Amino acid sequence: MLASALGNRIFDALPDSESASMRPALEAVTLDAYDIVYSAGAAIDAVYFPTTAVLSVLTVMRDGGAVEIGTFGCEGLSAAAVVLGGERSPSQVICQVPGDAYRMPVATFVAHLESAPVFRRLVRRYAEALFNFMGQSIACNRLHPVHERCARWLLLTHDRVNGDTFALTQEFLAIMLGVQRPVVNLAARALQNAGYIRYHRGRVEIRDRAGLERAACECYRINADEFVRVV
């Protein structure tokens, strides 16, 4: 492996020969919360490889209502649809937790899929894992109580950020969970009263990781194991 890791697990799992050939095409970018990476139906012109940023895939209705169907960070990449030959984003993708990422022109990305076999294998496995994650999320949103889903979402975000504290508003968490803000407030308060988290002025601190895992639904472990399997 190259001496300097980028911080994205797909890239950092590549052999030197493939990684070295791709790095010149990467542009370092910083994303802020609510930045729109892709609008639904828009042409995909670049692929993002998060390092410290966390991105969210949203289904947006005509009335403006939205619900999260997927989330990803340093374990993956945006625009999994490109792997299947897609040219437009089927969903809106926004920055959920501000941070850094690398951006690669989509034409360059497609060229490397054809020329770099390890990269192609990892990206395809990641796309499979992401689609499985979305399917699990749909079932989770339908079957599991809000506080369990909230714990799952906090754990998945904790896995992708540096440290135990990250920015998060109730408004954003409500979108992620597909519920109203008062419901989110009750769920977060229950987790805080149990001593698992501290939530204050738009920031979450994970205080008892093991307790939060016990509070989460089974979907967290299923999702986490799936992404670990990819790389």
CATH superfamily of the largest domain, called what?
Jelly Rolls
Q: What is the radius of gyration computed over CA atoms, rounded to a whole number of angstroms?
A: 17 Å
Q: Which of globular, elongated, flat, extended, rod-shaped describes the shape?
A: globular
- The beta-strand count equals 10
Order of helices and strands: HHEEEEEHEEHHHEHHEEHH
Q: Helical percent range? A: 40-55%
| Domain unit count | 2
Low-confidence stretches: none
CATH class of the largest domain: Mainly Beta
Spatially, the strands of the biggest sheet line up as 2-6-4-5
Structural class: alpha+beta
Strand content: 15-25%
**Mean of residue pLDDT?**
90
State the major sheet: 4 strands, antiparallel
Discrete helix count: 10
Oligomer: single chain
Q: What distance separates the N and C termini? A: 14 Å
CATH architecture level-2 label of the largest domain = Sandwich
CATH topology category name of the largest domain: Jelly Rolls
